[in-house]
């Protein structure tokens, strides 16, 4: 079998396998990033125009592109609809960016830790992943400068707002500093913001791309966390120099994004109804976050350290006595508990043992205490070996 | 700007640019492969389950995979649902196959001519495209054997049923011979069948993959030509050795296919209602094909040669006095007529001048005569230069 060279780097997705194992209804899953089932809005389809069954344009539906551009401008991102490319979820934006930039051994810069599926996709295309550590304020700016002084990454991939998996929100000062360094070293910035709207306080978080003065950029978002992930509607907005390439790559990948989902997204994006729904989501998730925090204090107070996230869907725990948390998966699943080991979120898993990502949005609050209790027991048992 | 090496091979899509130019309502477009607008079925959405808004599996919806597998088995393809991967249109299957197989200079084997977007996608990934010519009966078997004796392609990509652009349907004998050669030389077969159901007679066309005894295979199909392309629902069925790789590639590309479109497809695939709709489509397109044939005889009888297609959406004309038909696009559009030049369907465009692909399904019959008359005039004027 003569596969491509890159297939030797094709990893099985741990997330996918855990989610498969966690399908059993008795499993309490802290593993995924699924929106809470009970918060999926009921949507109407009656008014769907029949002509949307026809082929569409690779760019996406014009009205939706307008609405997405308007939303981004309201966040301070200078752009218009001609810079918006509707994608099959924001995951596809990563695939397009990888195709655009990554050859064997191309350097790219990521946060440590970073989004697992981005890391895997970039590595699959052959990237040499440079990692800059995160602090509670965002990227470690000194480490970023040092990295850029000694390397030439094709792009930096950042999730500055409720980062996955760490939950970190970059401070305004950190955002300014990152933008200045991207400009100084002429590094393309890919800013991924799936969790922006899932915010539990009032702190500001203006996109970093809005602070850039010179360098190229791609900003990505999605309706998956605030409307319906099953629509598979995300988007990227790109600086004018990059857009024509990304458009052609989109066309080669799947011609265009499904128009049914695009139409449904258009019924929401930019409307008061969507704002009201998002506000409900925030209240719902904030309450779940608070309950989860309380349960964590009870069961993990002695075991781990963490910061309470102000948005997003995850807690990120650092064990005080580090062990390889991948080895905890099987015993945890035997106790009907699923979680995400932290190691795969680093390009150097072996050098980063002892973190766990716990989703707080999915498991019903009345089961969280039992689930975390079991998970803590599994960890203690492993640490005692 | 440091893009990947492959971006140097990223071509602007001629189809896309023509379709863009052909958006003006006054343009009579013979260029695209769009289903006729008036034949898009009215679909119902009332019963869509709300839980389909949630994330789905990368493989696709279980019931839809079952229905697709059953349909393939009825065609003679031995498979079960575990071999079915639902994709964002069958275009995505080409992207996944390219990722699986193609490094810089990897040989792949295609028909000459072949589907433009496949050719472009494979070349983008760096493929060295070997071309075996088509005859009216299918692939030139002697040329195929010679090609396989002197080369080692990673796969052969064929469209044996109403081939795009040529309209050729491989004979049963040719299908047997191709299958035997794929087995003999251990070449993976990718069989692409978007047009299988758009058939105007009763002749058989059992898939080539059903005739394979040993070698690996991927069979692709779509609902885009018979239901609604805007759903972006296609599929691939793969031999068991390939499936796990394609699944991981799908997950990295966009996590999963949109579930709304999958649900709608499931309301049709394998049902009597779908069969009745497809029968209506066949009657409608057959009548359009006949009217187009008559108009072609009137206006192109002296100019070109062609075979009347027994299925699909296209006529494929060979000019008796070959000229570069790409140069005809601008004068044709000036006359409000669009068509597809034949040269880009060959990996060696310069060596294959003087063909045109004409879609017969889109332009209303009462305008076809005028459109073809204008196109013939444009050709004659260019030939007279």
From TrEMBL, chains A, B:
GO molecular function annotations of the record: transaminase activity
Pfam families on file: Aminotran_1_2
Secretion signal span: none
InterPro entries: Aminotransferase_I/II_large, Class-I_PLP-dep_aminotransf, PyrdxlP-dep_Trfase, PyrdxlP-dep_Trfase_major, PyrdxlP-dep_Trfase_small
Keywords: Aminotransferase, Pyridoxal phosphate, Transferase
Transferase keyword on record: yes
UniProt-listed Gene3D superfamilies: Aspartate Aminotransferase, domain 1, Type I PLP-dependent aspartate aminotransferase-like (Major domain)
Domain called Aminotransferase class I/classII large: residue spans: 52-375
Cofactor(s) it depends on: pyridoxal 5'-phosphate
Keyword Ligase recorded: no
Entry protein name: PLP-dependent aminotransferase family protein
Species this protein is from: Pseudomonas luteola
